[in-house]
Q: What sequence folds into this?
Protein backbone atom coordinates (compact mmCIF):
# COMPACT_ATOMS: atom_id res chain seq x y z
CA UNK A 1 0.00 0.00 0.00
CA UNK A 2 1.21 3.50 -0.80
CA UNK A 3 2.42 5.51 2.20
CA UNK A 4 -0.24 8.12 3.13
CA UNK A 5 2.52 10.75 3.71
CA UNK A 6 3.41 10.68 0.03
CA UNK A 7 1.40 13.15 -2.04
CA UNK A 8 1.64 14.28 -5.62
CA UNK A 9 4.89 13.52 -7.45
CA UNK A 10 6.79 16.74 -8.17
CA UNK A 11 9.78 15.32 -10.08
CA UNK A 12 9.76 11.80 -11.55
CA UNK A 13 12.75 9.46 -11.29
CA UNK A 14 13.48 9.65 -15.04
CA UNK A 15 13.42 13.44 -15.00
CA UNK A 16 15.87 13.47 -12.07
CA UNK A 17 18.28 11.15 -13.89
CA UNK A 18 18.06 13.14 -17.10
CA UNK A 19 18.62 16.52 -15.43
CA UNK A 20 21.46 15.26 -13.21
CA UNK A 21 23.23 14.00 -16.30
CA UNK A 22 22.80 17.40 -18.01
CA UNK A 23 24.15 19.21 -14.96
CA UNK A 24 27.16 16.87 -14.86
CA UNK A 25 27.93 17.65 -18.49
CA UNK A 26 27.57 21.38 -17.92
CA UNK A 27 29.81 21.35 -14.83
CA UNK A 28 32.42 19.21 -16.63
CA UNK A 29 32.56 21.77 -19.41
CA UNK A 30 32.60 24.84 -17.13
CA UNK A 31 35.31 23.48 -14.80
CA UNK A 32 37.55 21.76 -17.37
CA UNK A 33 41.17 21.86 -16.20
CA UNK A 34 40.30 23.14 -12.67
CA UNK A 35 39.76 20.18 -10.25
CA UNK A 36 36.72 21.60 -8.44
CA UNK A 37 35.86 20.72 -4.83
CA UNK A 38 32.21 19.73 -4.49
CA UNK A 39 30.89 20.60 -1.04
CA UNK A 40 27.83 18.60 -0.07
CA UNK A 41 25.56 19.83 2.66
CA UNK A 42 24.55 16.92 4.90
CA UNK A 43 22.37 15.06 4.93
CA UNK A 44 19.88 15.77 2.15
CA UNK A 45 22.36 16.62 -0.61
CA UNK A 46 24.23 13.29 -0.35
CA UNK A 47 21.89 11.49 -2.73
CA UNK A 48 21.96 14.17 -5.44
CA UNK A 49 25.71 14.73 -4.97
CA UNK A 50 26.64 11.09 -5.41
CA UNK A 51 24.63 10.82 -8.63
CA UNK A 52 25.90 14.19 -9.90
CA UNK A 53 29.55 13.40 -9.20
CA UNK A 54 29.33 10.20 -11.25
CA UNK A 55 28.16 12.35 -14.17
CA UNK A 56 31.16 14.70 -13.93
CA UNK A 57 33.83 13.68 -16.38
CA UNK A 58 36.76 15.78 -15.14
CA UNK A 59 38.96 15.38 -12.02
CA UNK A 60 37.06 16.63 -8.95
CA UNK A 61 37.01 16.14 -5.17
CA UNK A 62 34.30 15.99 -2.52
CA UNK A 63 33.92 17.20 1.05
CA UNK A 64 30.96 17.69 3.37
CA UNK A 65 29.55 20.20 5.80
CA UNK A 66 26.76 19.72 8.29
CA UNK A 67 24.78 22.71 9.48
CA UNK A 68 21.87 23.12 11.84
CA UNK A 69 19.45 25.90 11.17
CA UNK A 70 17.48 27.18 14.11
CA UNK A 71 13.76 27.47 13.63
CA UNK A 72 10.76 25.21 13.29
CA UNK A 73 10.89 21.99 11.30
CA UNK A 74 9.52 23.64 8.15
CA UNK A 75 10.87 27.21 8.49
CA UNK A 76 14.51 28.16 8.82
CA UNK A 77 15.47 31.26 10.80
CA UNK A 78 18.70 32.10 9.02
CA UNK A 79 20.71 31.53 12.17
CA UNK A 80 22.97 28.65 11.27
CA UNK A 81 25.42 26.65 13.34
CA UNK A 82 28.20 24.57 11.75
CA UNK A 83 28.05 21.02 13.14
CA UNK A 84 30.72 19.61 10.85
CA UNK A 85 33.18 21.76 8.94
CA UNK A 86 35.24 20.93 5.85
CA UNK A 87 38.25 18.63 6.28
CA UNK A 88 40.42 20.80 4.05
CA UNK A 89 41.21 24.47 3.52
CA UNK A 90 39.63 25.95 0.40
CA UNK A 91 41.89 28.94 -0.17
CA UNK A 92 42.55 29.16 -3.92
CA UNK A 93 40.17 26.25 -4.70
CA UNK A 94 37.24 26.22 -7.07
CA UNK A 95 34.38 25.39 -4.72
CA UNK A 96 30.93 24.24 -5.80
CA UNK A 97 28.35 23.97 -3.03
CA UNK A 98 25.87 21.18 -3.76
CA UNK A 99 22.48 21.61 -2.07
CA UNK A 100 19.34 19.52 -2.18
CA UNK A 101 16.91 22.44 -1.95
CA UNK A 102 16.96 26.20 -1.57
CA UNK A 103 13.83 27.37 0.18
CA UNK A 104 14.11 30.78 1.90
CA UNK A 105 17.80 30.81 0.90
CA UNK A 106 18.87 31.76 4.42
CA UNK A 107 20.98 28.64 5.01
CA UNK A 108 22.78 29.07 1.72
CA UNK A 109 23.26 32.77 2.34
CA UNK A 110 25.10 31.92 5.54
CA UNK A 111 27.19 29.20 3.85
CA UNK A 112 28.22 31.51 1.03
CA UNK A 113 29.39 34.11 3.54
CA UNK A 114 31.25 31.57 5.64
CA UNK A 115 33.00 29.86 2.72
CA UNK A 116 33.51 33.09 0.79
CA UNK A 117 35.53 34.48 3.71
CA UNK A 118 38.05 31.64 3.26
CA UNK A 119 39.16 33.07 -0.08
CA UNK A 120 38.38 30.30 -2.56
CA UNK A 121 39.35 31.01 -6.19
CA UNK A 122 35.65 30.70 -7.04
CA UNK A 123 32.46 29.83 -5.20
CA UNK A 124 29.31 28.66 -6.96
CA UNK A 125 26.13 26.80 -6.07
CA UNK A 126 24.40 23.81 -7.62
CA UNK A 127 20.93 23.21 -6.16
CA UNK A 128 18.73 20.33 -7.24
CA UNK A 129 15.52 22.15 -6.30
CA UNK A 130 14.54 25.75 -5.71
CA UNK A 131 11.25 27.17 -4.47
CA UNK A 132 11.16 30.66 -6.03
CA UNK A 133 8.00 31.70 -4.15
CA UNK A 134 9.66 31.25 -0.78
CA UNK A 135 12.92 33.07 -1.43
CA UNK A 136 13.78 35.72 1.18
CA UNK A 137 17.30 36.64 0.04
CA UNK A 138 18.59 37.06 -3.48
CA UNK A 139 21.36 34.55 -4.16
CA UNK A 140 23.46 33.66 -7.16
CA UNK A 141 22.63 30.02 -7.93
CA UNK A 142 24.70 29.00 -10.93
CA UNK A 143 23.10 25.59 -11.52
CA UNK A 144 19.45 24.75 -10.79
CA UNK A 145 17.90 21.32 -11.31
CA UNK A 146 14.20 22.17 -11.05
CA UNK A 147 11.97 24.96 -9.83
CA UNK A 148 9.16 23.54 -7.71
CA UNK A 149 5.98 25.07 -6.29
CA UNK A 150 5.63 26.07 -2.67
CA UNK A 151 5.06 22.58 -1.26
CA UNK A 152 7.07 20.66 1.33
CA UNK A 153 9.07 18.18 -0.72
CA UNK A 154 10.26 14.70 0.26
CA UNK A 155 12.34 12.03 -1.43
CA UNK A 156 15.70 11.77 -3.26
CA UNK A 157 17.43 12.89 -0.07
CA UNK A 158 14.77 15.26 1.25
CA UNK A 159 13.21 14.27 4.53
CA UNK A 160 10.29 14.96 6.76
CA UNK A 161 11.33 14.07 10.33
CA UNK A 162 14.16 11.97 8.83
CA UNK A 163 11.75 9.81 6.81
CA UNK A 164 11.38 9.35 3.03
CA UNK A 165 14.94 10.25 1.98
CA UNK A 166 15.07 6.88 0.18
CA UNK A 167 12.28 7.60 -2.32
CA UNK A 168 13.71 7.54 -5.88
CA UNK A 169 11.53 10.55 -6.90
CA UNK A 170 10.56 13.88 -5.32
CA UNK A 171 7.01 14.11 -4.00
CA UNK A 172 4.99 16.62 -2.00
CA UNK A 173 4.34 15.72 1.61
CA UNK A 174 0.64 14.90 1.88
CA UNK A 175 -1.04 17.36 4.20
CA UNK A 176 -3.66 15.77 6.41
P1 LIG B 1 16.32 27.52 3.66
O1 LIG B 1 17.36 28.03 4.63
O2 LIG B 1 14.95 28.06 4.00
O3 LIG B 1 16.67 27.78 2.22
O4 LIG B 1 16.15 25.97 3.88
C1 LIG B 1 17.24 25.18 3.87
C2 LIG B 1 17.05 23.77 4.36
O5 LIG B 1 15.73 23.48 4.84
C3 LIG B 1 17.26 22.84 3.19
O6 LIG B 1 18.62 22.60 2.96
C4 LIG B 1 16.50 21.62 3.65
O7 LIG B 1 17.31 20.84 4.49
C5 LIG B 1 15.33 22.19 4.42
N1 LIG B 1 14.13 22.29 3.56
C6 LIG B 1 13.61 23.40 3.00
N2 LIG B 1 12.53 23.11 2.27
C7 LIG B 1 12.39 21.78 2.34
C8 LIG B 1 11.43 20.86 1.74
O8 LIG B 1 10.51 21.20 1.00
N3 LIG B 1 11.61 19.54 2.05
C9 LIG B 1 12.62 19.10 2.85
N4 LIG B 1 13.53 19.91 3.41
C10 LIG B 1 13.40 21.24 3.15
MG1 LIG C 1 19.72 20.66 3.34
A:
Amino acid sequence: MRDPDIGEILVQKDALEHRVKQLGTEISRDYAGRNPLLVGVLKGAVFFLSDLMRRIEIPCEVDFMAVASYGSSTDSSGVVRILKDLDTTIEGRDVLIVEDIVDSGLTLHYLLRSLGAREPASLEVCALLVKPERRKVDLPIRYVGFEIPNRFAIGYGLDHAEQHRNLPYVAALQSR
